[in-house]
Design brief:
- 44% of the residues lie in helices and 25% in strands.
- It is of the alpha+beta class.
- The chain has three domains: 110 residues, no CATH class; 73 residues, Alpha-Beta Plaits (2-Layer Sandwich); 116 residues, Gyrase A, domain 2.
- The strands form four sheets. The protein has a five-stranded antiparallel beta sheet. The chain has a four-stranded antiparallel beta sheet with strand order 3-4-2-13.
- The radius of gyration is 29 Å and the shape is elongated.
- The model has no long low-confidence stretch (mean pLDDT 83).
């Protein structure tokens, strides 16, 4: 039995097709409830511009496991979210990591923050030389070529025992000036260790050390057993929030060496995007005109199907939060021709 579409049914199907294409176009242009707009599609580094960095696992790490490498990649992925939610971290080979951050053009700032080990310690100065075993176990650390004080420091609390860290602005009680600090809250183990450190060192100086740099060296006035502390001395709120973020994420399992970086121009990416879109639009118009001239009414139906196909691709890119790159645009244009 053959299915035969009557003229009224054909007209209804044609009108519904136009309505669906029009609705999809409306969603792409204006969105629905804040979703679906074509301008919200994530653009890759080659289209939006930004910073691209390649790291290599430092030889100082010695022998390391695949788990250590994957853990380092995962922590880098969390760190780059501070710069851009569109950032990507990818494994390259056995010991390299590629980082792409669209929309970020200050390479020095990214390099300064991203590749830091992120090791935080609360210490007291140690006059005697500890054993190599204790140093390897991170019970003590050694600072070298540090203008604020070389030598050995006893580790009481580490960044791994920080439950929460938050960058914020506060007012100095004496000068009333605004200062930017990182407020810390320790877990149970950290609370006890921090209480022990302050209880045993009332009247003495303690040290907050981050990535082998002394951030602060406060004198202990009294025992602090409430499980909270502050790191002051940040130049602005952004720096305080960046430090707090790195502390929350934790130190990188492996230390990294930067082997290359480059900044992609936003203008070049914008030019490539505009030219690619123009090429795709011209190609689609030519195909639609060709089908209309050669196939007449069936050509119109095929044209609507082609437009709907492109709209579905754009909605899928948006809906599944995919990143559009220059090769991706070339693939879409090729698919238009093949469809």
């Amino acid at each position: 039995m053959k299915f035969k579409m009557t003229r009224p049914k054909a007209i209804i199907a044609f009108v519904l097709s136009i309505a669906m294409v029009a609705f999809a176009a409306y969603v792409l242009v204006f969105g629905v409830a804040g979703y679906g707009q074509a301008k919200s599609i994530k653009l890759g580094l080659d289209l939006k511009g930004g910073v691209s960095i390649t790291y290599q696992v430092s030889k100082d790490n010695g022998k390391y496991s695949e788990t250590d490498f994957e853990d380092t990649i995962n922590k880098l992925e969390k760190r780059v979210q501070v710069f851009s939610t569109e950032a990507q971290v990818q494994k390259e080979g056995d010991d390299k990591i590629a980082v792409s951050i669209p929309g970020q053009y200050d390479a020095d700032k990214v390099l300064e923050e991203l590749g830091k080990p992120g090791s935080l310690y609360f210490c007291t100065k140690e006059e005697s030389t500890p054993s190599k075993k204790d140093i390897k176990a991170k019970k003590y650390i050694q600072l070298k070529n540090n203008s604020q004080g070389d030598g050995y420091y006893k580790v009481w609390v580490t960044g791994d025992e920080v439950k929460n860290a938050k960058g914020q602005a506060s007012q100095d009680e004496n000068t009333k000036a605004t200062q930017y600090v990182v407020s810390l809250k320790f877990d149970d183990k950290g609370t006890k260790a921090f209480g022990d450190m302050t209880s045993q060192n009332v009247g003495n100086q303690t040290y907050i050390i981050y990535d082998n740099q002394i951030l602060s060296a406060p004198n202990v006035k009294e025992a602090i057993t409430g499980g909270e502390a502050q790191i002051d001395g940040q130049k602005d709120l952004e720096e305080a929030e960046q430090l707090a973020s790195n502390i929350r994420i934790g130190s990188l399992t492996l230390s990294l060496d930067e082997i290359s970086h480059k900044v992609e121009s936003a203008q070049l990416g914008n030019d490539a995007l505009q030219k690619s879109l123009l090429a795709g639009l011209i190609g689609m118009i030519i195909i639609l005109i060709f089908m209309l001239i050669v196939y007449r009414i069936p050509g119109i139906a095929a044209g609507l199907a082609l437009i709907a196909y492109v709209e579905m691709i754009l909605l899928a890119l948006n809906g599944f939060d995919l990143t559009l790159t220059l090769p991706g645009i070339a693939g879409i244009i090729l698919n238009i021709g093949m469809a």
